[in-house]
Write a structure and sequence with these properties.
single chain; Uridine Diphospho-n-acetylenolpyruvylglucosamine Reductase, domain 3; Phenylalanyl-tRNA Synthetase, Chain B, domain 3; 3 domains; six-stranded mixed beta sheet; 13 helices; elongated
């Protein structure tokens, strides 16, 4: 079997190859070199130096020289620091982002990686153990359509041993990453202990897994068509309508949740399993009007009445206190301004008489125990006003509260007026507008 049996090449193809200098990727580069002249291929090797082993610099230098000798364009980057708790996930994201920049730089049609049959088996087994959906259980695709190019994994019909034998036969030099033998990594344990057993049962078991993967992908395509119909009904501006969501079939519900999660966890949902889907479903069906759950990589799912929204946790401002002058721009992207005249008398306006309050006025975020004197109704907790007005939990911490110099709440902009607010036909000397 040759690489031409695994993928249809065209004249003048431009191909970027993700290459680590290991046995698999070096075999792929050599295979492409052997057919380069036949198809007039333009080859670019893209290498990421993970900067974790002393050998990393040596591998990069070897690849640079190899490419120069074989007239291949060479692009490399070094990862200088890691911030994610999940090293493999972060390194993968960095790699593919770099590969994509190289693809766009050379206007390549394809990004090729050296994933082989053993890799596919490991991924399928890991997903089954962790729990996933059909798309996850299928492992990964041979061809993935990206924006303006395709990711191609042409070696899925080969085993790792076949690639190592190819290197030996063709005198292809490569480097071995010692960390691939360490049991602390989950994938390595599958590689060392599970795959050898399966291959004893059937030396060509990797081809059975490839067929299994293909069948699941075909079934998943049908399911995704049904899921997409549901998505158009239940998701608007990235917010899930829970009333409509609960009308869906339970299987499609899970597929919709996986779809939403894909925006945050990308191609293979490696960090997400059935437990996280169950967490989201428990949140959705809980009796609490406002609640949230934390997901991997600082993602939070927030339920607000009949809406569900996912957000990336950031270090945004959550408290502020500013003296109210002529014009104040607020962290919630609204403004409060003092004006000379104003029509209307809604909750986004406030008219005050300075002699009845203590100046200066201040706008701040809510505090524990905040209450406001409401006309004819005594006092009311700010928290209860938020609940009555169905303000999203995610918006409450930044919602402006206007107080006087003694800390008396005189206005909850956009929501509620206090007893200090004046009608247009009453006496007042301060007019505030919230927009």
């Amino acid at each position: 079997m040759s690489i031409e049996d695994c993928f249809t090449f065209h004249k003048n193809d431009i191909i970027v190859v993700g290459c680590s200098a290991g046995p698999d990727s070096m075999a792929l580069v050599d295979m492409l070199l052997k057919i380069r002249e036949k198809y007039n291929l333009s080859l670019v090797v893209a290498h990421v130096n993970h900067n974790l082993r002393k050998q990393s610099a040596q591998e990069e230098e070897y690849l640079r020289n190899y490419c120069e000798k074989n007239h291949i364009m060479f692009e490399a980057m070094m990862i200088t620091e890691y911030g994610d708790d999940n090293f493999h996930n972060e390194a993968r994201n960095i790699r593919y982002h770099f590969f994509e920049t190289v693809v766009y730089k050379y206007q390549a049609q394809y990004l090729m990686t050296a994933h082989h049959g053993d890799d596919l088996m490991e991924t399928v087994l890991m997903r089954i153990t962790r729990g996933s959906n059909l798309n996850g259980y299928s492992g990964f695709k041979k061809i993935v359509d990206m924006e303006g190019y395709q990711i191609v994994r042409p070696l899925l019909s080969f085993t790792k041993k076949e690639l190592e034998d190819y290197d030996k036969k063709n005198h292809v030099m490569y480097y071995i990453d010692d960390s691939n033998a360490k049991d602390k990594y989950t994938r390595n344990r599958y590689r060392k202990y599970i795959l050898p057993f399966l291959k004893e049962e059937d030396p060509n078991v990797h081809l059975k897994y490839l067929k299994f993967s293909t069948v699941l992908q075909e079934a998943n395509q049908f399911i995704e068509n049904e899921r997409d119909k549901a998505i158009r009904r239940v998701i608007h501006k990235n917010i899930l309508n829970l009333t409509l969501f609960k009308e869906l079939d339970s299987f499609i519900q899970k597929e919709v949740l996986y779809y939403i999660l894909n925006d945050y966890y990308q191609d293979d949902l490696i960090l997400i399993n059935d437990k996280h889907i169950e967490l989201l479903l428990n949140l959705i069906y809980s009796n609490r009007a406002n609640a949230f759950v934390n997901l991997p990589n600082e993602v939070i799912a927030i339920k607000t009445y009949q809406d569900l929204e996912l957000k990336k946790v950031t270090t945004e401002i959550t408290t502020y206190e500013v003296e109210l002058s002529k014009y104040v721009e607020l962290p919630n992207h609204h403004v409060i301004e003092q004006v000379d005249e104003l029509e209307g008398n809604g909750n986004d306006t406030c008219r005050l008489l300075s002699s009845e309050i203590s100046l200066p006025l201040t706008v701040r975020t809510r505090r524990l125990g905040d209450r406001m004197a409401v006309k004819g109704n005594g006092t009311k907790k700010i928290k209860d006003i938020f609940i009555d007005k169905k303000v999203k939990l995610s918006e409450r911490d930044l919602w402006p509260v206007v107080v006087d110099a003694k800390g008396v709440v005189v206005w909850l902009p956009g929501l509620k007026k206090s007893k200090y607010d004046k009608k247009k036909n009453e006496k007042y000397d301060i007019i505030l507008k919230y927009s």
